[in-house]
Structure formats: structure tokens, C-alpha cells
């Protein structure tokens, strides 16, 4: 296919790539096996098309997910688990009908992302595979302890989402693999909170994102706690030392402040046009404090 793009200088640029729209996963995986390193899966295209236009990505083979059947579902598993097909859109996540806590939490994350037009095409799988440190869904899924399931011609394998990211734009997905599903484990009395800061209120990527998930016992003690930080390191990462401060503890202002300061020290933000590194670090502390207070507060309300 010859594809025409308007460049920033106004000149017309011509790129050539082969466009495939396989009808089955088997067919798609065969194409990825054949062209892997030179190929890109096209899901919603909200990252890939922008990158192609800017020449950040120059795929020679584009494998569209448009006709792939049954990979855009969301299912509840047990009391609070989920299976999310890689091509489920952010709108589908936002509007999911499930009453479980994980589903409500991911809906609240999706609601904070982009605007309706982007959310209608952007997918969960695209958000992960693009491997942006600022991707909101990545932080949310890390906090939930989710796994990424990838398929190739040879096998299917799963890995924790927190191990999926290797650097900006780099993931552990091999060139011949497609992300097919995300599994959110079933958990007991799980409470979650997502705090996000951006320059503008809508349609802007996060300057800092903090997702927290924890089981809080009826007596108010936290366990299985995860604090995921977005946009403040080369990858979305867990603030593991901060987690140890809260794990096994009941709520106290002092403990939450200490954990929040530790999370800030575990981040390694950069300065860019949207915020300085120092400001981002300060905001990690503020948002972590709010998110931790949020989960304890929600548990208390329900007790
Ligand atoms: C105006 C605007 C606002 C935005 N706001 C936000 C925001 O608030 N928060 C946020 O996190 N992001 C935001 N984004 C970025 C983007 O919309 C998301 O990252 C989105 O989820 C990407 O999904 P997609 O389906 O469009 O991916 P695509 O663009 O189709 O793909 C992205 C990358 O992942 C690869 N890929 C996609 N699916 C798979 C798969 N299943 N297996 C293997 N590889 C795959 C593609 O080859 C490509 O390299 C915004 C983008 C725009 C243009």
C-alpha cells in the first residue's frame, strides 16, 4: 500500500508498507513469524499512526487487528478477577458492566485517559505494547498484579505486567509475539485508587500517575499492596520500598507520609517541557499519599 502523509514542512511524503488484515489469530501469528522485526500490529493506531507520521516508527508490514475475532472481550473471573482481550478499547473498559472492584478501578483509570474519540479506538493492548512510561493503563494493571499473555506460532506465555517493560518504547514482547490478553487475578477485599496529574485536565498524558491496590482486612490492616508509579522513570515501576512500609500495617497519617516520601525517592523522573524532575518527584509524594489514604478510607467506609 502506498500511504501519503503530510509532513510538518508541508511537503508530501510517500511511505510504502504492506498492509495485512488477517481473519484469524493463526493467520496473524504466521505473518508475525514471517515479518516480526519489520512488522507492527495495528490496533487502534492512536500511537502507531502518530509515530509513523513522525517517522519514529517505520513499519514495512502492518498487521491490522481489525478483522481478528474474539480478542476484544472483557470477562469477570470469580469475585474480582478479569480477563481482558488485548483489543478491548478504553471505552469498553470505561463502560464495562461488572460490579467487581478491579473492573470499577480500571474503568476509573480509563475515564482519566484521552478523550472519547481516542478512547473509542485506543486499546488496552496498544497502551501496554507502546511501552510508554506514562501509560495510565500500565500503572493500573501493575497495581492489580495483572499478567500479560502473549502468543506466537510456537507457544503462549504469560508474564507479570510489571516485568513487561524494559525501557521507553521497549517491552519483553518478542517480535513474533502478539499480546492477546491481560489477566487480572482474583483478590479478596481489594481496594484501589488512581491519582493522576496532567497539564490540562483532558486529552493530555500524565505528568505523574500513581496507582495503588491493596487488600485491607476488616480490622484495617493492609496486605498484598502494590504502588505503581507512571511517568517518573524510564518504565512504569513499583515503589517496592514504600510498599514495605505499609504492608501489614493499619492506617496512620505518619506511616502514609513516610511511604509517600519513600516512593518519591524511588522515582527517577526527567525534566521535560511539561514538568521538571523536582516537581514530578514532589508530586509522586503528594499523589502516593492521596492514593494510600484513598484505599484505607474506602475500606473504612465499607467496614
Ligand atoms: C490525543 C491523544 C491522547 C492520548 N491520551 C493518552 C492518555 O491520557 N493516557 C495514555 O496512557 N495514553 C494516551 N494516548 C496514547 C494512546 O492513545 C494509548 O497508548 C492507546 O492505548 C494505544 O492503543 P492503540 O490501540 O491505539 O495502539 P496502536 O497505536 O495501534 O499500537 C501501539 C503500539 O503497540 C503495538 N501493538 C498494539 N497492539 C498490540 C498487540 N496486541 N500485540 C503486539 N503489539 C501491539 C503496535 O504495533 C504499536 O507499536 C493518547 C494518544 C493521543 C493521540
What does this structure look like?
The protein is α+β, with helices and mostly antiparallel strands and 303 residues long. It folds into three domains: 2-64, Uridine Diphospho-n-acetylenolpyruvylglucosamine Reductase, domain 2 (2-Layer Sandwich), CATH 3.30.43; 74-184, Uridine Diphospho-n-acetylenolpyruvylglucosamine Reductase, domain 3, CATH 3.30.465; 190-302, CO dehydrogenase flavoprotein, C-terminal domain (Enolase-like, domain 1), CATH 3.30.390.50. Helices cover 34% and strands 26% of the residues. It has eleven helices and 16 strands. It has helices at residues 25-35, 48-53, 90-94, 101-111, 116-121, 124-129, 136-143, 161-164, 240-246, 253-266, 277-302, and strands spanning 2-6, 12-16, 18-20, 39-42, 61-64, 74-77, 81-85, 147-151, 156-160, 165-167, 170-171, 178-184, 190-197, 208-216, 222-230, 237-238. A five-stranded antiparallel beta sheet has the order 6-7-12-8-9. Strands 13-14-15-16 form a four-stranded antiparallel beta sheet, with helices on both faces. Helix 4 (101-111) packs antiparallel against helix 7 and helix 9 runs antiparallel to helix 10 (253-266). The chain is globular, with a radius of gyration of 20 Å. The model is unreliable at 4-14 (pLDDT under 50). Flavin-adenine dinucleotide is lined by residues 40-48, 50, 86, 113-114, 118, 122-123, 125-127, 129-130, 135-136, 173, 178-179, 203, 205.
Amino acid at each position: 500500500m502506498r500511504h501519503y502523509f503530510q509532513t510538518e514542512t508541508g511537503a508530501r511524503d510517500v511511505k510504502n508498507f504492506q498492509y495485512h488484515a488477517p481473519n484469524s489469530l493463526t493467520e496473524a501469528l504466521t505473518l508475525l513469524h514471517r515479518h516480526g522485526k519489520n512488522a507492527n500490529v495495528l490496533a487502534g493506531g492512536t500511537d502507531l499512526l502518530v509515530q509513523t507520521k513522525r517517522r519514529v516508527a517505520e513499519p514495512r508490514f502492518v498487521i491490522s487487528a481489525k478483522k481478528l475475532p474474539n480478542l476484544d472481550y472483557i470477562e469477570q473471573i470469580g469475585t474480582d478477577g478479569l480477563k481482558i482481550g488485548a483489543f478491548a478499547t478504553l471505552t469498553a473498559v470505561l463502560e464495562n458492566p461488572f460490579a467487581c472492584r478491579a473492573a470499577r478501578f480500571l474503568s476509573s483509570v480509563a475515564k482519566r485517559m484521552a478523550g472519547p474519540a481516542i478512547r473509542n479506538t485506543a486499546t488496552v493492548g496498544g497502551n501496554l505494547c507502546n511501552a510508554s512510561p506514562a501509560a495510565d493503563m500500565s500503572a493500573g494493571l501493575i497495581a492489580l498484579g495483572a499478567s500479560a499473555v502473549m502468543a506466537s506460532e510456537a507457544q503462549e506465555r504469560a508474564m507479570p505486567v510489571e516485568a513487561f517493560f524494559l525501557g521507553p518504547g521497549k517491552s519483553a514482547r518478542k517480535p513474533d509475539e502478539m499480546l492477546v490478553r491481560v489477566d487480572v487475578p482474583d483478590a479478596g477485599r481489594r481496594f484501589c485508587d488512581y491519582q493522576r496529574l496532567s497539564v490540562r485536565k483532558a486529552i493530555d498524558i500524565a505528568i505523574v500517575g500513581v496507582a495503588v491496590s491493596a487488600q485491607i482486612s476488616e480490622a484495617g490492616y493492609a496486605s498484598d499492596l502494590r504502588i505503581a508509579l507512571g511517568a517518573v522513570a524510564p518504565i512504569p515501576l513499583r515503589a517496592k520500598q514504600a510498599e514495605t512500609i505499609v504492608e501489614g500495617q493499619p492506617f496512620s497519617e505518619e506511616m502514609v507520609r513516610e511511604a509517600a516520601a519513600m516512593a518519591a525517592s524511588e522515582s527517577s523522573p526527567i525534566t521535560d517541557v511539561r514538568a521538571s524532575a523536582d516537581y514530578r518527584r514532589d508530586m509522586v509524594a503528594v499523589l502516593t499519599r492521596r492514593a494510600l489514604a484513598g484505599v484505607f478510607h474506602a475500606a473504612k467506609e465499607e467496614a
